[in-house]
Amino acid sequence: MKLKKLTRNLTLWVLLAIVAGALLGHFQPATAQQMEPLGKRFIDVVKLFINPIIFLTITLGISTMGDLKKVGRIGGKALLYFEVVTTLALLIGVAVAAVVKPGAGVSTGKLNTEKVGEFTKRATEFSWGHFLADNLTLQVLLVAIVLGIVLSKYAGRKPIIHFLKVASGYVFRGLHLVMLFAPIGAFGGMAFTIGKYGIATLLPLGKLMVTVYLTMAVFIFVILGAILRYCRIGMWSFLKYIKAELLIVLGTSSSEAGLPGLMEKLERMGCAQPVVGLVVPTGYSFNLDGTTIYLSLATLFLAQVFNIDLTGAQILTMMGILMVTSKGAAGVAGSGFVVLASTLTAMKVIPVEGLALLLGVDRFMSEARSITNFIGNGVATVFLAHNEGALDHQMAEEALGKRLKPLRLRRRKDLTSGEYLGEVAEEAANKSTPQ
Hints:
Mean pLDDT: 78
Structural class: mainly alpha
Radius of gyration: 22 Å
Strand content: under 5%
């Protein structure tokens, strides 16, 4: 019975696929590079589900919410949270780079600047107008919000809502079938990465790699961990709960691959549907904690490589530029390099050609960025749901398989009626208290 359960464990199969892909990439790099379509096609298919899920979740959530003021309040709190946490991530990246100095002593003698011009050109072409026009996710989000508001005011909305609920069930059923192929996608993504770039490319910039991964680990377990503790949830329990999605993100180097699964699991652990629908897709574009940390570290890394001592004013300028440009990173192809190129171009202090140093290792650091962004958006949703009184702690306790701390005076609010569920909250507290 245990063996049968083990063979059906998606997490195990994804992990084995990642290991197999890494081994193939190391020992048969030419063959491994031919596996690239497996990873790309899997991500492409998952992307087909993202916008329908966002549309259905947002529309259903808002149309059944009742008080539309709550929608604006949640959206406002989300944007404020994103700005505070990403700014904190930026400060951490700057502080770590200043202390560790990962660029000190790195040679610039073998710079290959052929591909740098492509990213520099994209950086100069970037505009917020293009970002909004090209970002289909944000467009769907806006349409869903408008439709949800219209339906909430429409007296004959019941048959439409019923249809949307049925459609939502079929969409998630289809997603579950697609996720059965996640090990194939993870295998293809990892095999291609190792096969094309090779482990040897990590050695010259090993200090930067280690610095990036350790900084993001500290951010996840210290900063995001503290935020979850405020919500009475442990980081390890949360990571264990979303481990399958994390491995998919790791194998494919794309947070998009795990986005639909994350939304479903957040609802399953008690986060109200409107909060999940608003926060996760918005955070995908505006709450990029991992990308922010990487960009600040990479900028200062290049300054150290070229022995450029940035003044306090220049560092503040860099931070100001990154606070704006990093928000649009998710909507741009080659986002990390494009934003980095735009930052260096705007500062006019660090040679843009230095980007060539990062070309070989950027793919290996994209896993860290994607995973940190992914976890950050999950934590943001839990925090905002808890803050709104829209997190069912009893459901969270059951989903995480671990007893939570007593609920004390915290009361959960029903987002549909706007009433406080005092008795439910007390019952949850009693069940959570160790006997």
